Amino acid sequence: MKKVVNILTIAGFMFLGAIQSTYAQEAAEKTFHQELKQRFIEGGPGFMGIVLVALILGLAIAIERIIYLNMATTNTKKLVANVDEALSSGGVEAAKEVCRNTKGPVASIFYQGLERADEGLDAAEKAVVGYGGVQMGLLEKNISWLSLFIALAPMLGFMGTVIGMIGAFDSIAIANDISPAVVAGGIKVALLTTVFGLVVAIILQIFYNYIVSKVDSIVNTMEDASISLIDLLAKYKK
């Protein structure tokens, strides 16, 4: 009889443990998406909505820039070799045709330099430098907006914090009491807006640093390739 009772007791504890683990699993499955949604609603639609808009616009700019910069990346060594071969076999027109059939800012700079090749090396070099500035501007397009959203998101979060604290002090004044229940709502809103603003800024900052490093890499490649083009034109002119 005692054995049966012990077995039933153990089975009961195992059943209770299974129920607890099931509830814990459901709570864990609920976590990220639903918790994020709940915290967003608790933070208030005003400032949290503005911070969310800053995140969406910042990500849209970052993704567009990343796609553009990846498309702008060119195998410059291969391009220089093809231009060199075209200059030696077919002259400037053949080299221009190679540049026309190649995508990217380096090929566009080469084309502008080759367009002025008949006017001398100085004219070709000026064309390369001038058009290089134009291409650099295209590479850096809209990056300033991304930095604006990086700065704006935490500022909006801090503003929500200040407004939440003001609401907490208003609640204290109305209730004439400094109990935790009175101020908890305002302080919670204040902390949530700060957290979301900082999270948005961190996400966009990562994208911003990647984009800036990518632009710097392409610009360095453009400068090296431009020097190579002037050297090729000097060799061709001899």
Describe the 3D structure.
This protein is mainly α and about 240 residues long. The chain has two domains: about 1-40; about 45-238, no CATH class. It is about 90% helix and about 0% strand. The chain has seven helices and no strands.
Short summary of the structure?
By secondary structure, this protein is mostly helical. Helices cover 90% and strands 0% of the residues.
Taken in chain order, the helices and strands follow as: HHHHHHH
Percent helix, as a range, is over 70%
User: Low-confidence stretches at least 5 residues in length (pLDDT < 50)?
Assistant: 1-24
Structural class: mainly alpha
Radius of gyration: 31 Å
Q: Tell me how many strands there are.
A: 0
Individual helix count: 7
Give the count of structural domains.
Answer: 2
Taking the alpha carbons of the first and last residues, their distance comes to 110 Å
User: Roughly what is the average pLDDT, rounded to an integer?
Assistant: 76
Q: Which range does the strand content fall in?
A: under 5%
Question: Rough shape?
Answer: rod-shaped
Main sheet characteristics: none
